[in-house]
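FAQ: What does the model actually see?

It sees only this:
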Amino acid sequence: MEKQFEKLLAYLNLEEKKETIIGKLIEITVDEGRREWFFNMELKEPLAIEEFELFERRLRNVSMFAKSCDYVRYQIEYETVHYETILAYYEHALNVLKEERPRYEALNGFEVDAEGDELTIVCPKDGLYVENMLFDIKDYLMRIGFDVTIGIRFCDNTPSITERIEHEDEADVLEAERNANVPAPQSRYVQYKDREVKKVKHGIADIPVTEEALTEYKSMHHKADFSIEARVMSVDERKLNNRTTLFTFVLSDEEDSIYVKKFVYDKEELDFLRATEPNMKMKVQGSAQYDKFVDEVVLTALTIERTHHAISEEERTDDEKNKRIELHLHSKMSTLDGIDSIDDYVQTAIRFNHPAIALTDHNNVQAFPDFYHATKGKPIKAIYGVELNFVNEAHVAMAWNTYEGSLRDATYTIFDLETT
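And it is asked to produce this:
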Protein backbone atom coordinates (compact mmCIF):
# COMPACT_ATOMS: atom_id res chain seq x y z
CA MET A 1 0.00 0.00 0.00
CA GLU A 2 2.86 2.35 -0.79
CA LYS A 3 0.57 4.35 -3.10
CA GLN A 4 -1.88 4.78 -0.24
CA PHE A 5 0.95 6.04 1.95
CA GLU A 6 1.85 8.62 -0.71
CA LYS A 7 -1.80 9.70 -0.73
CA LEU A 8 -1.59 10.07 3.05
CA LEU A 9 1.48 12.28 2.69
CA ALA A 10 -0.42 14.41 0.16
CA TYR A 11 -3.37 14.60 2.57
CA LEU A 12 -0.96 15.81 5.26
CA ASN A 13 0.54 18.35 2.83
CA LEU A 14 3.89 16.53 2.96
CA GLU A 15 4.28 15.63 -0.71
CA GLU A 16 7.72 17.23 -0.80
CA LYS A 17 8.84 14.72 1.87
CA LYS A 18 8.01 11.55 -0.07
CA GLU A 19 11.69 10.95 -0.87
CA THR A 20 12.65 10.87 2.83
CA ILE A 21 9.45 9.71 4.57
CA ILE A 22 9.10 6.29 2.94
CA GLY A 23 6.66 3.69 4.13
CA LYS A 24 3.36 1.94 3.61
CA LEU A 25 -0.09 2.30 5.08
CA ILE A 26 -1.16 -1.03 6.55
CA GLU A 27 -4.69 0.03 7.51
CA ILE A 28 -6.95 2.87 8.57
CA THR A 29 -9.72 2.07 11.05
CA VAL A 30 -12.57 4.53 11.55
CA ASP A 31 -14.70 4.35 14.70
CA GLU A 32 -17.78 6.38 13.78
CA GLY A 33 -19.23 6.22 17.28
CA ARG A 34 -16.13 7.69 18.95
CA ARG A 35 -15.27 9.71 15.80
CA GLU A 36 -11.77 8.26 15.99
CA TRP A 37 -9.33 7.40 13.19
CA PHE A 38 -6.58 4.82 13.76
CA PHE A 39 -3.56 4.69 11.41
CA ASN A 40 -1.36 1.58 11.28
CA MET A 41 1.85 2.31 9.32
CA GLU A 42 5.25 0.84 8.58
CA LEU A 43 8.12 3.20 7.78
CA LYS A 44 11.28 2.09 6.03
CA GLU A 45 13.48 3.18 8.95
CA PRO A 46 13.45 5.73 11.81
CA LEU A 47 13.38 9.31 10.57
CA ALA A 48 15.53 12.20 11.64
CA ILE A 49 13.76 13.55 14.73
CA GLU A 50 12.90 16.88 13.06
CA GLU A 51 11.14 15.10 10.19
CA PHE A 52 9.35 12.72 12.54
CA GLU A 53 8.07 15.59 14.68
CA LEU A 54 6.70 17.29 11.55
CA PHE A 55 5.08 14.06 10.32
CA GLU A 56 3.54 13.30 13.72
CA ARG A 57 2.27 16.88 14.18
CA ARG A 58 0.53 16.81 10.79
CA LEU A 59 -0.94 13.39 11.58
CA ARG A 60 -2.36 14.58 14.91
CA ASN A 61 -3.84 17.67 13.24
CA VAL A 62 -6.02 15.53 10.97
CA SER A 63 -8.81 15.97 13.54
CA MET A 64 -8.70 19.74 12.96
CA PHE A 65 -9.78 19.56 9.31
CA ALA A 66 -11.45 16.13 8.89
CA LYS A 67 -15.17 16.60 9.54
CA SER A 68 -15.82 13.08 10.87
CA CYS A 69 -12.69 12.87 13.05
CA ASP A 70 -12.27 14.17 16.59
CA TYR A 71 -9.41 11.89 17.73
CA VAL A 72 -6.36 10.40 16.01
CA ARG A 73 -4.41 7.32 17.19
CA TYR A 74 -1.54 5.66 15.38
CA GLN A 75 0.88 2.74 15.54
CA ILE A 76 4.20 2.97 13.72
CA GLU A 77 6.57 0.11 12.97
CA TYR A 78 9.81 0.01 10.98
CA GLU A 79 10.96 -2.29 8.21
CA THR A 80 14.47 -1.85 9.60
CA VAL A 81 14.77 -0.49 13.11
CA HIS A 82 17.95 1.00 14.59
CA TYR A 83 18.56 2.92 17.79
CA GLU A 84 21.18 5.52 16.84
CA THR A 85 18.68 8.33 17.46
CA ILE A 86 16.90 6.82 20.46
CA LEU A 87 18.03 9.61 22.83
CA ALA A 88 16.42 12.22 20.58
CA TYR A 89 13.22 10.15 20.46
CA TYR A 90 13.29 9.78 24.25
CA GLU A 91 13.49 13.59 24.62
CA HIS A 92 10.63 13.92 22.14
CA ALA A 93 8.53 11.41 24.09
CA LEU A 94 9.21 13.31 27.30
CA ASN A 95 8.19 16.62 25.70
CA VAL A 96 4.92 15.12 24.42
CA LEU A 97 4.08 13.73 27.86
CA LYS A 98 4.97 17.04 29.55
CA GLU A 99 2.35 18.79 27.41
CA GLU A 100 -0.28 16.32 28.61
CA ARG A 101 0.83 16.01 32.27
CA PRO A 102 3.02 18.70 33.88
CA ARG A 103 4.41 16.25 36.46
CA TYR A 104 6.81 14.93 33.79
CA GLU A 105 8.72 18.20 34.18
CA ALA A 106 10.33 16.37 37.12
CA LEU A 107 12.45 14.36 34.65
CA ASN A 108 14.07 17.49 33.20
CA GLY A 109 17.84 17.46 33.51
CA PHE A 110 18.19 13.78 34.43
CA GLU A 111 21.09 12.10 32.64
CA VAL A 112 20.11 9.28 30.27
CA ASP A 113 22.48 6.50 29.16
CA ALA A 114 21.68 4.64 25.94
CA GLU A 115 23.10 1.34 24.75
CA GLY A 116 21.24 -0.22 21.85
CA ASP A 117 17.61 -0.71 22.84
CA GLU A 118 18.33 -0.13 26.55
CA LEU A 119 17.87 3.24 28.27
CA THR A 120 19.00 4.00 31.82
CA ILE A 121 17.77 7.06 33.71
CA VAL A 122 20.31 8.34 36.25
CA CYS A 123 18.29 9.54 39.26
CA PRO A 124 19.12 11.23 42.56
CA LYS A 125 18.69 9.19 45.71
CA ASP A 126 15.21 10.62 46.38
CA GLY A 127 13.93 10.03 42.83
CA LEU A 128 11.83 6.95 43.56
CA TYR A 129 8.77 8.58 41.96
CA VAL A 130 10.46 8.37 38.53
CA GLU A 131 9.78 4.66 38.17
CA ASN A 132 6.04 5.09 37.67
CA MET A 133 6.60 7.65 34.91
CA LEU A 134 8.77 5.32 32.85
CA PHE A 135 5.84 3.06 31.93
CA ASP A 136 4.20 5.89 29.95
CA ILE A 137 7.47 6.76 28.20
CA LYS A 138 8.03 3.11 27.24
CA ASP A 139 4.42 2.83 25.99
CA TYR A 140 4.76 5.98 23.87
CA LEU A 141 8.08 4.83 22.36
CA MET A 142 6.45 1.46 21.57
CA ARG A 143 3.65 3.25 19.69
CA ILE A 144 6.18 5.04 17.48
CA GLY A 145 8.20 1.90 16.73
CA PHE A 146 10.83 1.53 19.44
CA ASP A 147 10.66 -1.52 21.74
CA VAL A 148 13.06 -0.41 24.46
CA THR A 149 13.93 -1.44 27.98
CA ILE A 150 14.05 1.46 30.44
CA GLY A 151 15.75 1.15 33.79
CA ILE A 152 16.87 3.37 36.67
CA ARG A 153 20.25 3.84 38.27
CA PHE A 154 20.34 5.76 41.53
CA CYS A 155 23.41 7.90 42.03
CA ASP A 156 24.49 9.20 45.44
CA ASN A 157 26.65 11.87 43.79
CA THR A 158 23.69 13.45 42.00
CA PRO A 159 22.10 16.27 44.06
CA SER A 160 18.74 15.25 45.47
CA ILE A 161 15.52 17.00 44.47
CA THR A 162 15.38 18.71 47.86
CA GLU A 163 18.99 19.90 47.55
CA ARG A 164 18.33 21.30 44.07
CA ILE A 165 15.34 23.28 45.36
CA GLU A 166 17.33 24.61 48.32
CA HIS A 167 20.15 25.63 45.98
CA GLU A 168 17.70 27.56 43.76
CA ASP A 169 16.34 29.35 46.84
CA GLU A 170 19.88 30.25 47.99
CA ALA A 171 20.67 31.60 44.52
CA ASP A 172 17.59 33.85 44.72
CA VAL A 173 18.71 35.16 48.12
CA LEU A 174 22.24 35.90 46.85
CA GLU A 175 20.87 37.72 43.83
CA ALA A 176 18.59 39.81 46.07
CA GLU A 177 21.57 40.70 48.28
CA ARG A 178 23.62 41.75 45.25
CA ASN A 179 20.77 43.89 43.99
CA ALA A 180 20.45 45.52 47.43
CA ASN A 181 23.96 46.96 47.04
CA VAL A 182 23.08 48.64 43.74
CA PRO A 183 21.26 51.99 43.93
CA ALA A 184 17.79 51.29 42.65
CA PRO A 185 15.86 53.68 40.40
CA GLN A 186 12.85 55.46 41.86
CA SER A 187 10.22 52.76 42.27
CA ARG A 188 6.65 53.28 41.14
CA TYR A 189 5.51 50.84 43.81
CA VAL A 190 4.49 51.39 47.42
CA GLN A 191 4.50 48.75 50.16
CA TYR A 192 2.91 48.08 53.49
CA LYS A 193 5.61 48.30 56.21
CA ASP A 194 8.38 47.98 53.57
CA ARG A 195 7.32 44.44 52.70
CA GLU A 196 8.70 44.03 49.18
CA VAL A 197 8.32 41.40 46.51
CA LYS A 198 12.03 40.73 46.02
CA LYS A 199 11.79 39.33 42.53
CA VAL A 200 9.01 38.70 40.00
CA LYS A 201 9.75 35.21 38.70
CA HIS A 202 6.50 34.03 37.12
CA GLY A 203 3.70 34.92 34.77
CA ILE A 204 0.10 34.10 35.65
CA ALA A 205 0.15 31.36 32.99
CA ASP A 206 2.87 29.57 35.00
CA ILE A 207 0.40 28.88 37.82
CA PRO A 208 -1.45 25.52 37.52
CA VAL A 209 -5.07 25.95 36.50
CA THR A 210 -6.78 22.86 37.95
CA GLU A 211 -6.70 21.14 41.32
CA GLU A 212 -5.09 18.07 39.73
CA ALA A 213 -2.37 20.13 38.01
CA LEU A 214 -1.65 21.95 41.28
CA THR A 215 -1.26 18.64 43.11
CA GLU A 216 1.19 17.44 40.45
CA TYR A 217 3.12 20.72 40.67
CA LYS A 218 3.43 20.38 44.46
CA SER A 219 4.63 16.79 44.16
CA MET A 220 7.40 17.96 41.83
CA HIS A 221 8.47 21.16 43.60
CA HIS A 222 7.44 20.43 47.21
CA LYS A 223 5.67 23.81 47.27
CA ALA A 224 3.58 26.10 45.04
CA ASP A 225 4.97 29.59 45.69
CA PHE A 226 4.73 32.20 42.94
CA SER A 227 5.58 35.88 42.47
CA ILE A 228 3.76 37.76 39.70
CA GLU A 229 3.23 41.27 38.37
CA ALA A 230 -0.05 42.21 36.70
CA ARG A 231 -2.76 44.82 36.33
CA VAL A 232 -5.64 45.10 38.80
CA MET A 233 -8.95 44.51 37.03
CA SER A 234 -11.27 44.56 40.06
CA VAL A 235 -11.21 44.84 43.86
CA ASP A 236 -13.62 43.27 46.33
CA GLU A 237 -13.61 43.72 50.11
CA ARG A 238 -15.55 41.49 52.49
CA LYS A 239 -15.56 41.58 56.31
CA LEU A 240 -15.41 38.04 57.70
CA ASN A 241 -15.52 38.87 61.42
CA ASN A 242 -14.48 41.58 63.85
CA ARG A 243 -10.77 40.93 63.22
CA THR A 244 -10.52 39.70 59.65
CA THR A 245 -11.22 41.28 56.25
CA LEU A 246 -10.85 39.39 52.99
CA PHE A 247 -9.69 41.27 49.88
CA THR A 248 -10.18 39.57 46.51
CA PHE A 249 -8.41 41.04 43.48
CA VAL A 250 -8.69 39.98 39.87
CA LEU A 251 -5.26 40.43 38.27
CA SER A 252 -4.50 40.14 34.58
CA ASP A 253 -1.32 40.23 32.53
CA GLU A 254 -0.98 39.93 28.76
CA GLU A 255 -1.58 36.18 28.83
CA ASP A 256 -3.93 35.21 31.67
CA SER A 257 -5.92 36.27 34.74
CA ILE A 258 -6.21 34.99 38.31
CA TYR A 259 -7.95 35.63 41.61
CA VAL A 260 -5.64 36.93 44.35
CA LYS A 261 -6.89 36.70 47.94
CA LYS A 262 -5.44 38.49 50.98
CA PHE A 263 -6.63 38.05 54.56
CA VAL A 264 -6.06 41.30 56.52
CA TYR A 265 -5.94 41.68 60.31
CA ASP A 266 -4.09 45.01 60.67
CA LYS A 267 -5.83 48.39 60.27
CA GLU A 268 -2.83 49.96 58.51
CA GLU A 269 -2.74 47.17 55.94
CA LEU A 270 -6.50 47.49 55.59
CA ASP A 271 -6.12 51.18 54.67
CA PHE A 272 -3.24 50.33 52.31
CA LEU A 273 -5.30 47.80 50.35
CA ARG A 274 -8.45 49.94 50.38
CA ALA A 275 -6.54 52.49 48.31
CA THR A 276 -6.17 49.93 45.50
CA GLU A 277 -8.02 50.86 42.31
CA PRO A 278 -8.58 49.13 38.97
CA ASN A 279 -5.73 49.63 36.47
CA MET A 280 -3.10 49.92 39.17
CA LYS A 281 -0.13 47.61 38.68
CA MET A 282 0.44 45.10 41.46
CA LYS A 283 3.21 42.72 42.50
CA VAL A 284 2.15 39.67 44.51
CA GLN A 285 4.13 36.98 46.26
CA GLY A 286 2.11 34.10 47.63
CA SER A 287 1.03 30.49 47.55
CA ALA A 288 -1.26 28.86 44.96
CA GLN A 289 -4.23 27.03 46.47
CA TYR A 290 -7.36 25.41 45.11
CA ASP A 291 -10.39 27.44 46.24
CA LYS A 292 -13.62 25.42 46.35
CA PHE A 293 -15.68 28.60 46.63
CA VAL A 294 -14.67 29.87 43.16
CA ASP A 295 -13.78 26.35 41.87
CA GLU A 296 -10.39 27.63 40.68
CA VAL A 297 -6.76 27.83 41.69
CA VAL A 298 -6.18 31.19 43.40
CA LEU A 299 -3.09 32.94 44.71
CA THR A 300 -3.21 33.58 48.46
CA ALA A 301 -0.98 36.63 48.93
CA LEU A 302 1.71 36.96 51.56
CA THR A 303 3.19 40.22 50.22
CA ILE A 304 1.57 42.84 47.99
CA GLU A 305 3.00 45.95 46.34
CA ARG A 306 1.01 48.36 44.20
CA THR A 307 1.57 51.54 42.24
CA HIS A 308 0.64 54.98 43.59
CA HIS A 309 -1.90 55.57 40.85
CA ALA A 310 -3.74 53.75 38.09
CA ILE A 311 -1.51 53.23 35.05
CA SER A 312 -3.29 54.57 32.01
CA GLU A 313 -3.12 52.49 28.87
CA GLU A 314 -2.66 54.23 25.55
CA GLU A 315 -6.01 54.20 23.76
CA ARG A 316 -6.00 52.11 20.61
CA THR A 317 -6.72 53.81 17.30
CA ASP A 318 -7.39 52.69 13.74
CA ASP A 319 -5.37 54.92 11.42
CA GLU A 320 -5.97 53.01 8.18
CA LYS A 321 -7.52 55.02 5.35
CA ASN A 322 -9.53 52.04 4.09
CA LYS A 323 -11.49 50.97 7.15
CA ARG A 324 -12.28 47.34 7.80
CA ILE A 325 -15.72 46.04 8.77
CA GLU A 326 -15.96 43.40 11.49
CA LEU A 327 -18.24 40.62 10.19
CA HIS A 328 -17.65 38.03 12.94
CA LEU A 329 -18.36 39.40 16.40
CA HIS A 330 -19.45 37.65 19.61
CA SER A 331 -20.91 39.67 22.45
CA LYS A 332 -21.34 38.53 26.06
CA MET A 333 -24.46 36.69 24.88
CA SER A 334 -22.08 34.05 23.42
CA THR A 335 -21.28 31.88 26.43
CA LEU A 336 -17.54 31.41 27.05
CA ASP A 337 -16.70 33.24 23.83
CA GLY A 338 -17.59 36.91 24.39
CA ILE A 339 -17.11 39.18 27.40
CA ASP A 340 -18.25 42.68 26.37
CA SER A 341 -21.69 44.07 25.65
CA ILE A 342 -22.55 44.92 22.07
CA ASP A 343 -22.76 48.58 23.13
CA ASP A 344 -19.03 48.49 24.03
CA TYR A 345 -18.15 47.08 20.63
CA VAL A 346 -20.29 49.61 18.79
CA GLN A 347 -18.68 52.52 20.65
CA THR A 348 -15.23 51.22 19.77
CA ALA A 349 -16.15 50.75 16.09
CA ILE A 350 -17.52 54.32 15.96
CA ARG A 351 -14.32 55.64 17.57
CA PHE A 352 -12.36 53.76 14.90
CA ASN A 353 -14.59 55.39 12.22
CA HIS A 354 -15.73 52.00 10.93
CA PRO A 355 -18.70 52.36 8.53
CA ALA A 356 -20.50 49.21 9.75
CA ILE A 357 -20.33 46.35 12.23
CA ALA A 358 -21.92 42.88 12.24
CA LEU A 359 -23.17 40.95 15.29
CA THR A 360 -22.91 37.14 15.04
CA ASP A 361 -23.57 35.58 18.45
CA HIS A 362 -23.64 31.80 18.92
CA ASN A 363 -27.09 30.32 18.29
CA ASN A 364 -29.01 33.33 19.62
CA VAL A 365 -30.14 36.85 18.75
CA GLN A 366 -30.63 38.08 22.32
CA ALA A 367 -28.38 41.09 21.77
CA PHE A 368 -30.40 42.37 18.79
CA PRO A 369 -32.47 44.91 20.82
CA ASP A 370 -29.33 46.31 22.47
CA PHE A 371 -27.64 46.35 19.06
CA TYR A 372 -30.53 48.37 17.64
CA HIS A 373 -30.41 50.98 20.41
CA ALA A 374 -26.59 51.18 20.33
CA THR A 375 -26.55 51.98 16.60
CA LYS A 376 -29.77 54.01 16.29
CA GLY A 377 -28.97 57.51 15.09
CA LYS A 378 -25.23 56.75 15.12
CA PRO A 379 -22.87 57.05 12.11
CA ILE A 380 -22.55 53.29 11.70
CA LYS A 381 -24.54 50.60 9.91
CA ALA A 382 -25.81 47.64 11.95
CA ILE A 383 -25.55 44.23 10.28
CA TYR A 384 -27.70 41.67 12.06
CA GLY A 385 -26.37 38.11 11.95
CA VAL A 386 -25.98 34.89 13.91
CA GLU A 387 -23.54 31.98 13.99
CA LEU A 388 -25.53 28.74 13.93
CA ASN A 389 -24.62 25.11 14.42
CA PHE A 390 -25.42 22.98 11.40
CA VAL A 391 -26.36 19.35 10.95
CA ASN A 392 -23.40 17.15 9.96
CA GLU A 393 -24.56 15.73 6.64
CA ALA A 394 -22.04 12.89 6.97
CA HIS A 395 -24.30 11.28 9.57
CA VAL A 396 -27.80 12.59 8.74
CA ALA A 397 -29.58 12.32 5.41
CA MET A 398 -30.70 15.79 4.35
CA ALA A 399 -32.97 14.63 1.49
CA TRP A 400 -34.32 11.24 0.44
CA ASN A 401 -35.66 11.77 -3.07
CA THR A 402 -34.04 13.09 -6.22
CA TYR A 403 -35.02 16.60 -7.34
CA GLU A 404 -34.39 17.91 -10.82
CA GLY A 405 -35.39 21.55 -10.29
CA SER A 406 -33.22 24.55 -9.51
CA LEU A 407 -32.51 25.05 -5.81
CA ARG A 408 -32.36 28.79 -6.47
CA ASP A 409 -35.99 28.79 -7.58
CA ALA A 410 -37.29 26.28 -5.01
CA THR A 411 -39.61 27.09 -2.10
CA TYR A 412 -38.34 26.21 1.37
CA THR A 413 -40.17 25.63 4.64
CA ILE A 414 -38.28 26.13 7.90
CA PHE A 415 -39.77 24.42 10.94
CA ASP A 416 -38.60 26.02 14.23
CA LEU A 417 -39.43 24.09 17.41
CA GLU A 418 -39.15 25.99 20.70
CA THR A 419 -39.02 24.37 24.15
CA THR A 420 -39.57 25.94 27.55
